Amino acid sequence: MTLHQTDPAQDAALPPRGSLWQTLTGTDAGAAAQAWADLMFERIGAPGEADPVSVVMFRLDPATRRLLPAGQAPQARAPTPDAISAAEAALEAGRGVVRGDGAAGLAPTAPRPSAARQTVTLALPIAVDGVSGGVAVAEILPLQAGAARPAMRRLQWGAAWMRDRLRSERSAEDAARYEAAAQALHAVVAVAETGDFATGARAAVTDLSTRFGCERVSLGFRRRKHSRLAAISHSAQFSRNMGLVRDLAETMDEAIDQRSAVLFPPPADDPAYVTRAAEVLARDDGVSHVFTVPLYVRDAFIGAMVFERPADAPFTQRDLDILEAVVTVLAPVLDEKRRNDRWLVTKTAVTLRNQLVKLFGPAYLGRKLLLLGLAALCVFFWFARAPYTVSADAIVQGAVQRSISAGFDGFIAAAPVRPGDTVREGALLVQLDDRDLVLDRLRLVTERQRREIEYDRALADRDRAEARILATQIEQADAQLRLVDEQIARTRLTAPFDGLVLEGDLSQAIGASVARGEPLMTVAPLDDFRIQLAVPEGQIADIMPGQTGQLRLTAYPDRAFTVEVEAITPVAEYGDGQTRFRVDATLVGAGALRPGLEGVARIEVEDRRLIRIWTDPIIDWFRLKLWQYRPV
């Protein structure tokens, strides 16, 4: 029993159903896409509901971001412009798209030509973990209203197969990348576990030869435009006059000169690389497959590695990709190991010789000019004098700061102001939640009214004892009402004077609980300031009350304010990685400032030699360290 009626010619073009399911789960991605299209062509329609016209599976090329048909049914029918347009629209929108007449409630996304009004095009993007991988498109001829909806559901059901297929393919790609990283890590560990470069290089090539099933892996480094072998797998020693060594060196030079990995024999679709040296190596050494990968470190080709395999073990594309990744990771490790393997005296002598040659030899005019410039600067700093100033971080503070605290335990209902806002006296700063208090007041009012009714009844009954008790209870309720009214009034926290809100951003804490006495905001006046300086401990001895200086704030970098040192607090404070002393200063003259502004103040001390200004901190540090570590 079939799900729909199709044209006999179309049925004849479809492969057997059993083979389609086998192909769908096979390893060939193209054949699987075609099998999926054939299967969906059989199932997209339904008898009396809709007939299938075509089914196309588009794959998204990650490099060009273009949709390419991977499978279509019938195979003789090329994707129509309507199918391509719907696929592009679905990919861009990230959701299913229905186009054409007969969509039964699903509005077309674009007007359709009159000649194709009976064809409905369904397009559904296929994504894995949020990354698009393709689009499934089906064209149907609806036989009744509302045929597009069940067809879209069947398309969604079938798309799950391709989604799982894409997920499996990406898992395989991830596995290949993980394998490359693991192999590179093993090679790096093989080098790192050894003490010297020769042992590390031999361990690396031997490990790679074993892991990748190579007959031999060789490593060489470029020196004076020619490669010299550094290590051969499974060989502790080798003679540089051996013919094999010369063939390997020429093979390495061949790849380095072409600045690319070279495979022999080259694949048919590979660019034309010169492989003469690799061919000679394969013929003389009796191997069939040679793969050479240059070592690229610090924008230069410094050597190469040669991998050799027999005829029955050719290199696959996966092997080539992994080997290139391993060599890319291993190259800087081997180069660093080779450089560090030299004697310390040798490295020092080579570095010193290179610098002296650059300084006193030909060329390198910039170095010579730099040395002369440094000498001229030293002479200038020795004789030049300049005002010595002490720089300190500064912050503008209000002379008086009022803390706004919660009068009782409660919850924040509103906070209309934030730090930096200017407020008037009596302005609302914080509103605490008074709903519980209002309910409590309503309860007390109700209780009082009930007592009043009972009191009136007792008077009517001339029950004086009961009346006195009820009168006392009414007075008690009145006292409780006054207390609740006072608490409700205290839910409004207002500004005590005209000022600026310094602290207490409660806009993100609406509904949060507060405890009695908890500070909520800080308000400072607008016209009374003090400047607090943080002077480093090494320069506090130069500061005295009465000294003046200049203050520049971050908000006003082009204006200088005059400040005068008022007092020095003899208490050290640690912060920002150093110890500082607090110094209070006053602002000389009026200034349009705000509490909380920060900047830098420079207090004038005296005129000193420029070189002393620059070197005093360093000399003081050396004196302290010399005394600290000097033997008693």
TrEMBL record:
Keywords: Coiled coil. It comes from the Bacteria. Its main location: other. One of its GO terms (cellular component) is cell envelope. PANTHER family: BLL5650 PROTEIN (PTHR32347:SF23), EFFLUX SYSTEM COMPONENT YKNX-RELATED (PTHR32347). Residues 531-597 form the CusB-like beta-barrel domain. InterPro entries: Beta-barrel_RND_2, GAF, GAF-like_dom_sf, UPF0194_transport. This is HlyD family efflux transporter periplasmic adaptor subunit. Residues 201-331 form the GAF domain. Pfam families: Beta-barrel_RND_2, GAF. It is found in: Cell envelope. The keyword Repeat does not apply.
